[in-house]
Design goal:
Helix content is 6%, strand content 41%. The protein is built from 1 helix and 7 strands. The strands form 2 sheets. The protein has a 4-stranded antiparallel β-sheet, with no helix packed on it. It is elongated and about 50 Å long.
Length: 96
């Protein structure tokens, strides 16, 4: 009886994996690169309407959108644990 109870999956339930903290970036110019806190995140943007989802640690972050070496957009943001923050890149504008 004890062997049956030990093998039962009811006693070995796994903890659910928490949702990740994400920055969801839309509207980045074609060919631009995304940087979070100075480190490149993601690949070059193929289309300006393509959404990129970046998994980040909770806390304050600076998102920069660069074309070649020029910063075309910068935004400071805060992400709470397990939250999703949507950032819409406004062409030619900077928000600090």
């Amino acid at each position: 009886m004890l062997a049956l109870l030990c093998g039962c999956s009811w006693f070995h339930r796994t903890k659910p994996v928490p949702d990740p903290t994400e920055l969801i970036v839309t509207g980045a110019p074609v060919g631009s690169l995304l940087f979070v806190d100075g480190a490149q995140s993601g690949h070059a943007t193929q289309a300006s309407n393509r959404t990129q989802v970046l998994v980040v640690a909770p806390g304050a972050h600076t998102l920069e959108v660069k074309l070649t070496d020029i910063v075309v957009y910068r935004e400071n943001t805060y992400t709470a644990p397990r939250s999703r923050v949507v950032i819409t890149v406004l062409s030619g504008n900077r928000r600090n």
